[in-house]
Amino acid sequence: MNGSESTRNQVVPAINALARDIEKIAQSDGDFMTAIPGLSLHRRKTPTEPLHCIFNLGLGVVVQGDKQALLGDEVITYGPGQSMLTSIELPVVSRVTRASAQEPLLGLMLTLDSQEIVQVAAEMKLPAPARGTVFRPLSIERLDERLTRDLSRLLELLDQPALVALLAPLIKREIIIRLLAGPHGPQLQHLVADGSPSQQISKAVAWLKQNFAQPMQVDELAARVHMSPSTFRQHFRTITGTSPLQYQKQLRLQAARQLMLNQNMDAANASGQVGYESASQFSREYGRLFGAPPLQDVRRMRLAEARI
User: Fold this and answer.
1) Which residue of 99, 161, 267, 284 pairs with 65 in a disulfide if CB–CB is 3.0 to 4.6 A?
2) How far is residue 158's CA from residue 167's CA, in Å, rounded to a whole number?
3) pLDDT tens for residues 56-110?
4) What Å distances lie between residue 166 and 116, 171, 300, CA to CA?
5) From CA 32, how far away is CA 52, in angstroms rounded?
6) How far apart are CA 15 and CA 10, in angstroms?
7) 3-state secondary structure of 306
């Protein structure tokens, strides 16, 4: 038995235990927010249609079933025992590709805090990523036994609600340490390296998320992060898979969708809330992204939720 086979054999029991921990809470299809900030659990018994969404800075794990993410022109697949690190907020098309009633997709998402990553990385005094290491805003790596057990410890903490506020931050910090020290480390280090293009684009993305409803000039946003307009456009597309204007548009449309779905807001009011001046333009761009006009899409989403 070679080293890689031995390592996989060691981690399988930990992954199976994590699957049981998830299934104990996620007993039916759906997305389950937990009492631990930033931690959600996910279960699906059938493959799903492609869904346009924004992946936040964080760690995604699949312990059963398969998923696929489309980032720009790149198709990324991941399945049992694999972890997905999103090191910058990204507009993606995501779907479940393998799931059944007998073997549902089981997974979790843990949102990470960029400031804590910066602080922990500074304390660890890690060496710089090797020259030539390419920054990948979305990376897939195999889970190791220690990280898997840390995630199980986080879930087990839900059985002790009085201890969540005290212990969850400590376990999440340990997870960040393991990510920085493990295969995902070079990508996180690129993110926190002072003055790196990935850090500058991350700052631009953070500004866009806070101000997507406001008019935006790309040249002004480039100046905000101390880059020339041409360099900014190039790095922004390389890292996020889209242009700054398209990124802003996706943020606006995603936000409008949530307003209509969760607050029963009509399309005209939702479009104005997210920064559109033309309702007809909003409807055209909404249909182009989500495949149906606003009213029809929201009705379809509600029917899908009712079936879950």
Assistant:
1) 99
2) 11
3) 999 999 999 999 999 888 899 999 999 999 988 888 999 999 999 999 999 999 9
4) 16, 10, 41
5) 19
6) 10
7) helix
Q: Give the residue among 210, 192, 206 at the shortest CA–CA distance from 118.
A: 192
Is residue 137 very low, low, confident or very high in pLDDT (cuts 50, 70, 90)? confident
Instruction: Dig out the tokens for 80 from the structure.
Output: 């049992």
Q: How far apart are CA 53 and CA 92, in angstroms?
A: 6
Window from 39-48, 75-84, 119-128, 278-287 with minimum mean pLDDT: 119-128
The runs of H, that is alpha helices, within 55-196 are 114-124, 145-156, 164-181, 185-192
**pTM for this entry:** 0.83
Ranges of beta strands (E only) in the chain are 30-33, 39-44, 51-55, 58-64, 66-71, 74-78, 82-86, 90-98, 105-111, 138-142
Q: What's the one-letter identity of residue 166? A: L
